[in-house]
Write a structure and sequence with these properties.
The complex is a heterodimer of chains A (83) and B (489). Chain A has four helices and no strands. Classes of the chains: A mainly alpha (83), B mainly alpha (489). Chains A and B meet through helix 2 and helix 3 of A and helix 11 and helix 13 of B.
């Protein structure tokens, strides 16, 4: 599992969550770049990612991840820990 | 000692700033802690023990909590203990007497409490800091701090201890390392302080003098127009009062190299109640989101509830808490539930619109001008009655005032007293309305686009700030000072 492949998976989840089939994300994408990405959508997104990858983010990761890249780093760290 | 009092402006503040820059770099945090404790002691010496006691307890509990591994039962018990300790203090000083009165009126008992309880200064605000620090340590967002000076300064920092802004320890911590002097930041600090003083002393206090009289009048003495003037005036007053305080707090921070979170972002330009609460008292909203909304939402989702139900329950928790936190009395609880109802209503409407768009395969379109006008009117009407709940002493006085606004029990439609009051505040009221919109930003951008815009700004800006300062200080000397509204919370 690479960061690149995880990015695609998360993009898919985001498209579903934000109801935008054309949404494209990068590591630098932030909540400010996506109109629908408010605090409710953020938590819902976190929940969907956790369900798909069967991991649990910490509160710090949920609150302080500054962009998609940081969230993916945390995600990969948890996936790695599970192995 | 309020920021706009003469003793603060001409004695405490200059001594603190000059002293800060004269002292060795390494001793500056200790100096700031001492200054903060002195500031608190001047305001309420007999409650200094509680503030310092809270610092020691939370510091030690932080260390203890941090010494345990994940999911340790003892760690959880310690967290609950320290949260109960912090909110227990708040409950005792703020709500205990009210609880006894409520119990007596419900059960017909006659319990009394001999002790006169005085609310410790800033307890509502520094409790947020202590709780947030311990939760962050528990969640491992923050490492338990070994240096008690850092924790103590975070909790007692004099520009923020009484009325916020409520910063997280992690954000505050970045200021605790050595701070280099930055002239631009220093100048920015002075400008923010002048803006804050002008907001509070010129606008909020002038309007407040009339608002207080209008709300203190007998119902039968108030005209319909006066009732509307009173509540609209209060809406302007509250914004300039609280945002003025925040400007001064942020400005003082800038002078000594501290970055402080913004607390306001033109709340009255909102189109929805949800948007308003993301622009008003922002640091409180962030605290509630991080420490209340998120844990409730996640625990509901883990139990398999629907997203809508989790959101609604989390919002209910947040607004019950926010309502009760804002003050003692049933009207504050209703105030919280009132905004909760609007936000849930807006969430439902947005969901319906989203589903409709999805069904029709269309994207979200920008609002048309009539839609924008409708949205602003809807928001402002919601705000008026929400703030009336906030300003009223009780639900009874709310309904009496509400009735007056629609002619029920009012003296007349308009009378001489109304015109007299209007003349007293008309200019300031209009200025207050204009500058509650981002007009300054628009003017600044336009000027900078002109040929020689930088030069114009360089000449005009100091003149405006100088004038604002002179007028504000003359208001301070005129002795018409009124306390900050949020001091009482």
């Amino acid at each position: 599992m690479t960061k690149e492949s995880v990015l695609k998976d998360v993009e898919e989840i985001m498209r579903e969550e934000f109801e935008d089939d054309e949404l494209e994300i990068t590591y630098e994408t932030t909540a400010a770049d996506v109109e629908e990405w408010d605090s409710l959508a953020h938590l819902s997104l976190i929940h969907e990612i956790e369900a798909k990858f069967k991991i649990k983010f910490t509160m710090g990761e949920i609150q302080d991840s500054k962009n998609v890249g940081e969230l993916l780093d945390a995600l990969l760290k948890h996936v790695e820990e599970k192995k | 000692m309020a920021f706009t009092s003469l003793e603060f402006l001409f004695v405490f503040f200059p001594i603190a700033i000059v002293g800060y820059y004269l002292i060795n770099n390494k001793l500056r945090n200790i100096f700031l802690l001492l200054v903060s404790l002195i500031y608190y002691a001047i305001g309420q010496l007999d409650m200094l023990w509680l503030l310092t006691g809270s610092v020691v307890v939370n510091y030690l509990m932080g260390l203890l909590i941090g010494s345990f591994e994940n999911n340790n039962v003892f760690k959880k018990i310690l967290l609950y203990a320290v949260i109960i300790f912090n909110f227990g203090i708040l409950y005792y000083y703020k709500y205990f007497l009210f609880s006894i009165d409520t119990f007596n009126s419900v059960f017909g008992t006659n319990f009394t409490y001999a002790k006169n309880i005085i609310l410790p200064l800033g307890v509502s605000f520094y409790t947020f800091r202590t709780v947030s620090y311990c939760l962050d340590v528990y969640w491992k967002t923050v490492k338990p701090q070994k240096n008690i000076i850092d924790v103590a300064l975070y909790i007692t920092f004099f520009p923020q201890v009484i009325m916020g802004p409520i910063s997280k320890y992690n954000d505050f911590k970045s200021n605790l390392a050595e701070r280099a002097f930055d002239f631009d930041n220093f100048l920015l600090g002075f400008k923010r302080i002048i803006i804050g003083l002008a907001k509070k002393l010129i606008i909020a206090d002038t309007i407040g003098s009339v608002v207080d009289k209008v709300f203190a009048m007998e119902t039968t003495e108030r005209s319909v127009v006066l009732a509307w003037l009173g509540i609209l005036g209060y809406i302007i007053q509250l914004y300039y009062d609280f945002s003025g305080y925040s400007d001064i707090a942020i400005g003082i921070g800038n002078l000594i190299g501290f970055k402080t979170d913004e607390n306001f972002n033109y709340p009255y330009i909102s189109k929805t109640v949800t948007e308003y609460w993301s622009r008003w008292h922002i640091t409180l909203g962030t605290w509630l989101k991080n420490y209340l909304y998120t844990p409730i939402f996640r625990s509901c989702m883990d139990k398999g509830m629907t997203k809508f139900r989790c959101d609604t329950l989390a919002l209910l928790g947040v607004w019950l808490f926010a309502g009760i936190w804002h003050g003692v009395g049933w009207n504050y609880l209703v105030y919280g539930l009132y905004y909760f109802a609007f936000i849930v209503f807006e969430r439902i409407c947005e969901d319906i619109k989203k589903k409709k768009r999805k069904k029709m395969g269309i994207k979200k379109q920008p609002k048309t001008i009539p839609q924008l006008i409708r949205a602003h009117v809807y928001f402002f009407v919601a705000l008026i009655f929400g703030q009336l709940l906030f300003r009223s002493d009780s639900m009874t006085s709310f309904w009496l005032y509400f009735g007056n606004m629609f002619g029920i029990g009012a003296k007349s439609l308009c009378d001489k007293v109304t015109l007299y009051f209007w003349k007293q505040i008309a200019v300031v009221f209009i200025v207050g309305v204009i500058f509650s919109f981002p007009v300054v930003d628009v003017i600044r951008q336009r000027v900078l686009k002109l040929n020689g815009g930088e030069i114009i700004k360089g000449v005009v800006s100091p003149v405006i700030y100088g004038l604002m300062l002179i007028v504000a200080i003359s208001f301070a000397f005129s002795g018409s000072y009124r306390g900050f509204i949020y001091f009482q919370f």
